[in-house]
UniProtKB/TrEMBL annotation:
Belongs to the polyphosphate kinase 2 (PPK2) family. Class I subfamily. Keywords: Kinase, Transferase. Residues 29-264 form the Polyphosphate kinase-2-related domain. It comes from Hyunsoonleella aquatilis. This is Polyphosphate kinase 2 family protein.
Amino acid sequence: MKKITESDFKITSKINIKDLPTALDLGADEKAVEKALKKTRKKLAEIQNTMYAHDKYAVLICIQGMDTAGKDSMIREVFKSFNVRGVEVHSFKVPTDLELSHDYLWRHYIALPQRGKFGVFNRTHYENVLVTRVHPGYIMAENIPGVDSVDDIDDAFWDKRFEQINNFEKHVAENGTIIFKFFLNLSKDEQKYRLLRRLNKQEKNWKFSSGDLKERKLWDKYQECYEDVLNRSSKAHAPWYNIPADDKPTARYIVAKIMYDVLSQYTDIVEPELDEETKANLDLYKAQLEGE
């Protein structure tokens, strides 16, 4: 099976989204890829257990992608071996009235993982420079001072919003959160196949919405916005990774492997040592229990 490293997928310079691959041949069949994923996610779970005891770092995983890119199944399969106490998933949908009564980052800030845990954002704060950029009318629901009409949402508005998002990530990274941002890069042909599958398989019908087809017509606009996101917000402390997503098992393995490669570099993540008194009395404690 082809060897991969996290640097193979990291966005480190300006990109043209059309040049980014949506498929990758690992030189292995599906069973071999799934076996590699299983092995990697178990090792990730071991790291998480150590992180939980260490209690100094948190991990934030941001997953973005077009409809049908495989976000839900990605989360299910990559974190399957985790202790449930170690990972929290937040799926961000249309903002509620409560969320709209705060600034747009509030609901993401309060969902950040605590130290020792993994937090997964299924769709993320980047929806605020993706969906709202394709549909700027949505911004009006945020009731922002100085934004009285869609005409007020100009380039300077988006520049400021990117600056705010970058500052948000820099702040949490500097305070102990390790950030991964995964763009599940799906081809338009594969999306068509997956949408048709939802229509053709009765058990998948519930996943289909006519709104999916309306958004598909805006494919080029979304691609333009994603390209801007990747170019303006992939930073050393919060990098974006392009994940070829046309094959789900391959995409899942790549994501797990990237996280494992990066987290393995944190040599300071270790289980805490027992205090001297407890260490000195371990035999005594064992004798007490064995003597019951």
